[in-house]
Amino acid sequence: MTETFQLFIDGEYCDPATGEWFDTINPYTGKVWARIPHGGQDDVNRAVDAARTAMTDGPWATMTASNRGKIMRKLGDLVAQNADRLAALEVRDNGKLLAEMAGQLNYHPEWWYYYGGLADKIEGTVVPIDKPDLFTFTTHEPVGVVAALTAWNSPLLFIAWKCAPALAAGCSVVIKPSEFTSASTLAFMELTKQAGFPDGVWNVVTGFGPEVGAQLVEHPDVAKITFTGSDTTGRKIYESAARGLKKVSLELGGKSPNIVFADADLDAAVAGAVSGIFAATGQTCIAGSRLLVQNSVKEAFTEKLLAIARDAKLGDPMLPDTHIGPVTTQPQFEKILSYIDIAKAEGARCVFGGNRAQGTDMEGGMFVEPTIFTDVTNDMRIAQEEVFGPVLSIIGFEDEAEAVSLGNDVIYGLAAGVWTKDIARAMRMSKALKAGIVWVNTYRVISYMMPFGGVKQSGIGRESGIRAIEEFLETKAVWISTSDAPPSNPFIQR
Length: 494
Description:
alpha/beta, Aldehyde Dehydrogenase, Chain A, domain 1, Aldehyde Dehydrogenase, Chain A, domain 2, 2 domains, 7-stranded mixed beta sheet, 16 helices, globular, Aldehyde dehydrogenase, Ald_DH_CS_CYS
């Protein structure tokens, strides 16, 4: 049965102004399972107007920070109560493993608890100014309406990352989810109503980039854009936002090095390498897609890795014993296969996988075999460009200096992994690697307490952690004269 969803604007579900819907596909079955509203400029305008009104005239504008926090914490409770339902919905929409999505949704409430608690801790400062007869202090105010553009691989997790600090700061939001995975975001709005958020604080307009995303970015009443997606789209957003001098946070692509030294616990490192590239079908910006292995253990390490890859089970993402699910979108599926062909043409040796996966449990789905390349050099496209799929490049290195050089020799700088028992080396590598995140003897770990984001062309700004709220605040300086006398000379600056 095909479900039909509606937009969410000004506290109510509603049909799109276009009167049109588009189909969304279950990546596992290849069949249409839902109809998503085809929003347009009129819907964007309505949503932004509602968000702006909520910040200026509605109860959200006058609500104390403590009460904002209480509503946010209630939302966290509601997510916890509905985690299984929301996780199943995401699996149907993006094809990721239920085990993965259930883990995300059960952890998701922590962002609402954390930032809900932080909402009334945003304190200004009294400045002991160097000028007499003046009392000066700073306050922090919400930046304004926030446009949150989320990616298709973890829609609800990205809503927590972006919207929790934005709401704690006192902003309102308009969300544009990926057109491939909009259903869970629309369903999530039910919980925001139950939590007691005033009308207009939350808004969702679904549709396509040129008709919704671009309109949101360019809208004069949008003050801040937060985006997760490709670096190509991120650059376009950055350029458009610059014309309006809007604040921007961009979480973009990655080509992360996962670096294994000879002294590492090789079994743990193999597990980390598998997690880094084959978990989530490799559809994650932090994928450890470049596996740098010290030459003295490279052959032995590769054999251990192949043994696990051979046992990986592809199939129904709802089943607990499935290891790798389908690729989420048709364009991404075709892109992954094209990069495999590119790697072969450039001389990389495919030692495992390298094809579309087929089988009785994969009929209709978009499956790619977990793929491992050796004989890769760092100048090959497979080592330089983001594939966003279960495709691993193994590159050898001799020493620490070469590992750093290879690790940093990409345009991206989101994450990196280091595997070693030498704590001094771990500290040196953590400092030397140009990445926003460095994991040592682990990989692909996140927390609401730790900042997430990259350097170079992996983006701008940070999500999660205590300082993420600063992305959604403006600082105001207030000067109060305590003197009864007029200035001695009003024609000069004091």
